[in-house]
Write a structure and sequence with these properties.
Layout: E1 4-10, E2 13-19, E3 32-35, H1 49-59, E4 66-70, H2 75-78, H3 100-118, E5 128-133, H4 135-146, E6 153-157, H5 166-172, E7 181-187, H6 201-215, E8 221-226, H7 233-247
Parallel strand pairs: 3-4, 3-5, 5-6, 6-7, 7-8
Antiparallel strand pairs: 1-2, 2-4
Length: 248
C-alpha cells in the first residue's frame, strides 16, 4: 500500500481514514467516501481492497479519493430508519432500534465538517459518497432521501430492503434529487433458504430498482445482479473496488 491508513477518534466514533498516495501533493481537493461498519471493506487486516484501489489510481481509471470508515455502536439500532421487531425473537437478536436519522445527523453535522476542516476535501455533494452493505446499504439509501444535499453519491451493496416498511417509504417519496447518482447491486443467491423477511430481498430489491429507475435519469442509476454471489463478507470485499469506481 502506498497511501496512508490510520485510525482517529472523533465525536465518540472510531474512524478508519485512508489518504491516497498523492494526497500530500494533490493539486485539487479530493472526493470523500464515507463507509459504514467501520470501513471493514477497506481494512488491510481483513482484505486487499486498498491494493486494488491503488492499482486503479495508478492506471488512471479511478481518481484518488479519501475513505472514511465509521464504526457503529450497534448496526441493528443505527442503520435502521424506524423501530421494528427482531427477525429472531428470543434467540439473542435484539429488535431494530430505528435511529438511522440520528446516525446520519452525526455524520452530516459533526464527522463530515470535521473531515472537511482537517483534510483537503471537495465538500460538494457530487464529490461526497456514502457506501454500505446489508443494513449499511439500507441506511445509505435512506441518506439519499434525508440528506441528498450532503451525500450526492450513494453506493449500496446487498441492501436489506426487506426491512419492514422501507419499500412503502420509497413509494411515498417519488421526488429524489435529480443530481443524485446511485450504484446498487445484489448477489443472485441472496435470500435463498431464509424463512424470515430476508427471503424477500430479491423481490424488494427489484421493487426498489423500479422506483429508482422512475425517479432518476438512466445515467444516474446503475444496478447489477451478480451471478453466484451470496450475502457474505468476501463478496463485499471483492465488490467494493468496482462500487467505488462507479460511485465517484
Amino acid at each position: 500500500m502506498r497511501g496512508t491508513l490510520f485510525t482517529k477518534m472523533y465525536a465518540g466514533r472510531d474512524l478508519l481514514i485512508y489518504l491516497p498516495p498523492s494526497y500530500d501533493k494533490a493539486s485539487y481537493p479530493l472526493p470523500v467516501v464515507y463507509v459504514h461498519d467501520g470501513g471493514d471493506v477497506f481494512d488491510l487486516v481483513l482484505n486487499g481492497t486498498l491494493y486494488n484501489l491503488e492499482q486503479r489510481f495508478a492506471a488512471g481509471t479511478l481518481p484518488e479519493l479519501i475513505l472514511v470508515g465509521i464504526a457503529a455502536y450497534d448496526p441493528l439500532v443505527e442503520y435502521t430508519p424506524w423501530y421494528a421487531r427482531a427477525l429472531y425473537p428470543g434467540l439473542g437478536h435484539g429488535d431494530f432500534g430505528g435511529r438511522a436519522t440520528e446516525y446520519l445527523n452525526l455524520i452530516a453535522h459533526e464527522i463530515k465538517p470535521w473531515i472537511d476542516q482537517n483534510f483537503y476535501t471537495d465538500s460538494r455533494p457530487e464529490m461526497t459518497g456514502i457506501v454500505g452493505k446489508s443494513l449499511g446499504g439500507l441506511v445509505s439509501l435512506f441518506a439519499a432521501y434525508v440528506y441528498p444535499h450532503v451525500f450526492g453519491r450513494i453506493g449500496i451493496m446487498s441492501a436489506s430492503l426487506w426491512y419492514e416498511g422501507f419499500i412503502e417509504f420509497m413509494r411515498e417519496r417519488q421526488h429524489l434529487s435529480p443530481d443524485l447518482r446511485i450504484y446498487m447491486d445484489i448477489g443472485n443467491l441472496e435470500g435463498l433458504g431464509k424463512a424470515n423477511r430476508q427471503r424477500l430481498i430479491q423481490t424488494c430489491t427489484d421493487e426498489a430498482v423500479g422506483i429508482l429507475m422512475n425517479n432518476l435519469a438512466e445515467s444516474h442509476f446503475y444496478f447489477e445482479r451478480i451471478e453466484g454471489d451470496d450475502h457474505d463478507p468476501e463478496t463485499f470485499y471483492q465488490r467494493f473496488p468496482d462500487l467505488t469506481g462507479l460511485v465517484i
